[in-house]
Structure formats: structure tokens, C-alpha cells
């Protein structure tokens, strides 16, 4: 594609590049630049892409898109390289998002789960659906591995193009707060945007809860319709900031457009009555926990906003399956239960432990750690909540990344120091899981928190294979 075609619609401040140049690939990482490519220089948090312009040109880049051009370089100067990258990506792939119904979910917890519920309901209604999120990307049932919850704009549009070409009519995606601030979804118009909740996470990046909230609110400035959790403390502000009509949902608050009543929380799922537009339907979802009612309402809100009849949506919900690593039961053939869950924030820990407490006949044993190079202030809070809600805690490692595992654990223990809940510290996670299994008692529920679908432990930029399902299975082989 010619450079000028890639730049269609991009607000160019000045250019010394040849618009007729035939561009190979578009790269935002100099290390991947090859002959004839376009290098987009981005100012980041760790480094500045402008530092690598010279290197990119040496490697054969045909032109550079940047915010500040070095002398003599074939450069296209723009105000914001991240936005330009997103616009170039849409041009490069033929604006695939425009030909599908785009659906986005933001919020601290529940995004992944909600997206799977929406996909399931839309597929039941006969649509081919693409899904983008933390666990994996899906084109129908084809799995595409992912590194991110919301990919960088260029990868995102490439993925949309594959989805469009495969016949997808709808895309349901998680829209992380990082992606909203870093313009990964810039230029995408969502038919429906949905907000699950706002609780503490990612303060390493957003610094304050209000910044974090405002990041999420961006979604409702680029959506035709919104779906908002009225029970969340941030609901009023989210509604005030929204630039689109919003459907609210609630467990019990009759003011909400979509309201759940007669909640029944079972060990293997939830049931409730959903009222919407004067109609009522009984909803069943085979995933346990009060938060599953909220996720079900969020997903229902999205498909109702698209015009799906309530009765059809409710019928479909009953056949939804669980999501890998979200309250997932690990088969053990013992008289106790092992669950794998992705709770990795104070609210996630609280919710999953309360849910488990709701159906546990014996002790609730919480095994968890906290990620390195991530929000440190959530660590003692997660520790305190786990100590408050579990009968026994095992504190271990969860993706230490470049931090010292024991130092992360010490941050967690800070929040547990006044607790009388018995606990054990075992830095090595497989060893900690073994210890939990060795000491399990009848009717215990052992909740392995934080890894969810992840099948690795990330240490110093290297992902070492570690699948909790395999660790449990191997334990019982011996
Ligand atoms: C905080 C954050 O999200 N950072 C993302 C951001 O990095 P950045 O802007 O700081 O980039 P940088 O590392 O300073 O580099 C600046 C530019 O120089 C380029 N570069 C760098 C080195 C070099 O030799 N040559 C070169 O050209 C880089 O490719 C980049 O374009 O843009 C990069 C390019 O897309 C991302 O890889 C990077 O994700 C980092 C690695 C990350 O871990 N992100 C996580 C926190 C994240 O995005 N998480 C969310 C939410 C998770 C959830 O709760 O579900 C997600 O959506 O996954
Ligand atoms: N609506 C909810 N409210 C609070 N906690 C929830 C909710 N839904 C799920 N959880 C808890 O949070 C964990 C993460 O859920 P899920 O993966 O659906 O969230 P997410 O928003 O996609 O997270 P991430 O930011 O990592 O992508 C679950 O394993 C569960 O413990
Ligand atoms: N995607 C999120 C959750 C990671 C969960 C946990 N395993 C961790 O490493 O903290 C993040 O990158 O913050
Ligand atoms: Mg997710």
C-alpha cells in the first residue's frame, strides 16, 4: 500500500516523505523493521520510540511517522503517534471494524466472563462472533493466542480483518483501561459499550482511582449505547460522563432499566428473575457467585441493547459454560474441592471468597500471591481480605516478574499481621499447592487465586510453564 493511502485521514503536521512510496509492513517497534517498512515512533513509559528512528532507517525503513523529525529523515510529523498508528492500522486493513457490530466491555472485574456470555448468546441467535480478551482471541471456535487483554491498535485491526474475512458479524472485546488511555482502540465506534465495576487495580499505571475511572469513561464517548452497573459506586459519574443513552442494571434497584430480583445463589450456579421493559424472564447461569448475577446482567444488557428479545437471551444464558480459570473446578476425586480462579485484585479476592463461603461446607483455604511490577498498594489489601474471609491462607508467588518474590510476599503479609487466621508462606507456587493438597481436610474448598487461565509463571521477562491443573493432577499420580 502507498504511504499516502496509509495516511488517509491522519492529521499530518508536516512531511518530508514520499507519499507514493510503496510500504511493506507498518512497525512500531524498531527491532522488527525491515526494508520498505513504515516505522511509527511512539513516546512510551519505558523508552521513546524516537530514539530508534535512525536504527529503523538503517534497517531499511522507507519512512517514519513521528512527533518530532530528525533532520534529513523521510518523516511524517503528527501530533500524536499512538493515534496515528491506530488510524494507519484501520487504513492498512480496510477499516474492518466498520463492517462488524463492535461490542466493548470495560471495568475492573468481570470483563472476560461477560464477553464469553455475550458470545454464547449471539451465537445461539445465529451470528458468527469474534472475541478479544485476556484468555485468548476467538474467531468462532478458532483460537488465537494472545499476550494482552486489549492488543495494540495495529494487531487489533489485523485481528478484526481476520474476523471480517472469516464471516464474523459481531466482535465482543474487553477494553482495558490501558487500551483506552494508550489509544489502542482509538477510532473504533462501538455499537454497545458496557461497564462492570470500578475497584482498585492498576494504580501503578493510573496513579489515582479517579484517573482510572476516567479512563474507563472514555468507552462511553465512543459508543452508540451504554450498559452501566447501577450498583457500582462509580455509576453516577459514569452516567454523567457518558455521551450516549445508557441502559442501567442492578440487583434489586427498581430504578434500573434491567433489574434482577429473587436471586438464588447455588454451589453450581445462580438463578434470578430479570425485568426489562415491562417483561420478566427467569435467568439461570451455571457459574456460581453473586458476581455471576452481575456478569449475567451486564451481558444481558448488551444483547438487549442490540434488540435481542429478553426471553431468547434468558433461554440462551442457561446453556452458557464456565470460563477457563474463573471459578473452575479441578477434578481431584477426593472429599475436598480445588478451584482455580483469576481473582487478582482486592475486590476479586473478596468476591470469590464470599461466593465460595456461601456454599462451603468445610474450611475455605485461600492460596494466592500478587504480581510483580504491578500496583503494590493492592498487595496488603488482598492479604487482609483473604485473611478476613478464609479459614486458612497460603501466601505464595504470582508472576514475580522483575521483583524479588519474597519482597512481594512481605507486602502482602503487611496486611495480614493483625489477623488470627492461620497461614503458611511458601514462595514456590507448585510447592505451595502441594502443601495445600497434603494438608487438605474433608469438605475443604481450596481456592487457587490469581493465575486463572495462565499456564506460566513470569520471572524476569521469561514465562516458565506452570499450569495449576497439571500440578494438581501430577500430585495425585504419585
Ligand atoms: C503500560 C503499558 O501498557 N505499556 C504498553 C506500552 O508501552 P510503552 O508505551 O511504555 O512503550 P515503551 O516500552 O516505553 O516503548 C516505546 C516505544 O518504543 C518502541 N521501541 C522500544 C525499544 C526498541 O528497541 N525499539 C523500539 O522501537 C516500543 O515498541 C514502543 O512503541 O505500549 C507497548 C506497545 O504496545 C506495550 O507493549 C506496553 O505494554 C506493557 C508491556 C504491559 O505490560 N502492559 C500491560 C500492563 C497492559 O497493557 N495490561 C492491560 C490490562 C490487563 C488487564 O487487567 O486485563 C491489557 O490490555 O493487557
Ligand atoms: N463482576 C464481578 N465483580 C467482581 N469480581 C468478579 C466479577 N466477575 C468475576 N470476578 C472475579 O474476578 C476474577 C476476574 O474475572 P474476569 O477475568 O472475568 O475479569 P476481567 O475484568 O476480565 O479481569 P482482567 O482485568 O484481568 O482482564 C474472577 O476470577 C472472579 O474471581
Ligand atoms: N492482566 C492483569 C492480571 C494479572 C494477574 C496476575 N496473575 C498477575 O500477574 O498479577 C495484569 O497484568 O495486571
Ligand atoms: Mg479479562
Automatic annotation (TrEMBL):
Ranges of residues in domain Mur ligase C-terminal: 325-452
Annotated catalysed reactions: UDP-N-acetyl-alpha-D-muramoyl-L-alanyl-D-glutamate + meso-2,6-diaminopimelate + ATP = UDP-N-acetyl-alpha-D-muramoyl-L-alanyl-gamma-D-glutamyl-meso-2,6-diaminopimelate + ADP + phosphate + H(+)
Pathway: Cell wall biogenesis; peptidoglycan biosynthesis
Family matches, as InterPro entries: Folylpolyglutamate_synth_CS, Mur-like_cat_sf, Mur_ligase_C, Mur_ligase_C_dom_sf, Mur_ligase_cen, Mur_ligase_N, MurE/MurF_N, UDP-N-AcMur-Glu-dNH2Pim_ligase
UniProt modified residues of type N6-carboxylysine: 216
Main subcellular location: cytoplasm
UniProt binding sites for UDP-N-acetyl-alpha-D-muramoyl-L-alanyl-D-glutamate: 30, 149-150, 176, 184
Sequence ranges assigned to domain Mur ligase central in this UniProt record: 105-302
Annotated meso-2,6-diaminopimelate binding sites: 374, 398-401, 450, 454
Cofactor(s) recorded in Swiss-Prot or TrEMBL: Mg(2+)
Similarity comment text for this entry: Belongs to the MurCDEF family. MurE subfamily.
PANTHER family: MUR LIGASE FAMILY MEMBER, UDP-N-ACETYLMURAMOYL-L-ALANYL-D-GLUTAMATE--2,6-DIAMINOPIMELATE LIGASE MURE HOMOLOG, CHLOROPLASTIC
Protein name: UDP-N-acetylmuramoyl-L-alanyl-D-glutamate--2,6-diaminopimelate ligase
Gene (name only): murE
Amino acid at each position: 500500500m502507498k504511504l499516502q493511502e496509509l495516511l488517509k485521514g491522519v492529521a499530518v503536521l508536516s512531511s518530508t516523505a514520499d507519499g507514493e512510496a510503496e510500504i511493506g509492513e507498518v512497525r512500531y517497534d524498531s527491532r522488527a523493521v525491515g526494508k520498505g517498512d513504515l516505522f511509527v515512533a511512539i513516546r512510551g513509559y519505558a523508552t521513546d520510540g524516537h530514539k530508534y528512528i535512525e536504527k529503523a532507517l538503517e534497517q531499511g525503513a522507507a519512512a517514519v511517522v513521528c512527533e518530532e523529525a530528525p533532520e534529513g529523515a523521510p518523516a511524517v510529523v503528527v501530533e500524536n503517534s499512538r493515534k496515528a498508528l491506530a488510524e494507519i492500522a484501520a487504513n492498512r486493513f480496510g477499516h474492518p471494524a466498520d463492517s462488524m457490530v463492535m461490542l466493548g466491555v470495560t471495568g475492573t472485574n468481570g470483563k472476560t466472563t461477560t464477553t464469553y456470555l455475550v458470545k454464547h448468546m449471539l451465537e445461539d441467535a445465529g451470528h458468527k462472533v469474534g472475541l478479544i480478551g485476556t484468555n485468548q482471541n476467538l474467531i468462532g471456535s478458532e483460537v488465537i493466542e494472545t499476550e494482552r487483554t486489549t492488543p495494540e491498535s495495529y494487531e487489533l485491526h489485523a485481528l478484526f480483518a481476520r474476523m471480517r474475512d472469516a464471516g464474523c458479524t459481531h466482535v465482543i472485546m474487553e477494553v482495558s483501561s490501558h487500551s483506552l488511555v494508550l489509544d489502542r482502540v482509538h477510532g473504533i465506534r462501538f455499537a454497545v459499550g458496557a461497564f462492570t465495576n470500578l475497584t482498585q487495580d492498576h494504580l501503578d499505571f493510573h496513579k489515582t482511582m479517579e484517573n482510572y475511572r476516567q479512563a474507563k469513561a472514555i468507552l462511553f464517548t465512543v459508543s452508540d449505547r451504554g450498559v452501566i452497573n447501577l450498583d457500582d459506586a462509580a455509576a453516577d459519574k459514569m452516567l454523567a460522563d457518558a455521551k450516549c443513552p445508557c441502559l442501567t442494571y442492578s440487583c434489586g434497584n427498581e430504578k434500573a432499566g434491567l433489574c434482577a430480583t429473587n436471586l438464588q445463589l447455588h454451589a453450581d450456579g445462580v438463578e434470578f428473575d430479570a425485568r426489562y421493559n415491562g417483561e420478566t424472564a427467569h435467568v439461570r447461569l451455571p457459574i456460581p457467585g453473586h458476581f455471576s448475577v452481575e456478569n449475567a446482567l451486564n451481558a444481558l444488557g448488551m444483547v438487549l441493547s442490540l434488540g435481542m428479545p429478553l426471553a431468547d437471551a434468558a433461554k440462551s444464558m442457561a446453556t452458557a459454560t464456565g470460563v477457563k480459570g474463573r471459578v473452575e473446578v479441578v477434578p481431584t476425586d477426593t472429599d475436598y474441592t480445588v478451584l482455580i480462579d483469576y481473582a487478582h485484585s482486592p475486590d476479586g479476592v473478596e468476591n470469590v471468597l464470599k461466593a465460595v463461603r456461601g456454599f462451603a461446607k468445610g474450611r475455605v483455604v485461600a492460596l494466592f500471591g500478587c504480581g510483580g511490577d504491578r500496583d503494590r498498594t493492592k498487595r496488603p489489601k488482598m492479604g487482609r481480605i483473604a485473611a478476613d474471609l478464609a479459614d486458612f491462607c497460603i501466601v505464595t508467588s504470582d508472576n514475580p516478574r522483575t521483583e524479588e518474590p519474597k519482597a512481594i510476599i512481605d507486602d502482602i503479609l503487611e496486611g495480614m499481621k493483625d489477623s488470627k487466621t492461620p497461614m503458611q508462606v511458601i514462595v514456590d507456587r507448585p510447592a505451595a499447592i502441594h502443601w495445600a493438597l497434603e494438608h487438605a481436610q474433608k469438605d475443604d474448598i481450596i481456592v487457587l487465586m490469581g493465575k486463572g487461565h495462565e499456564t506460566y509463571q513470569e520471572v524476569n521477562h521469561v514465562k516458565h510453564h506452570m499450569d495449576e491443573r497439571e500440578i494438581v493432577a501430577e500430585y495425585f499420580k504419585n
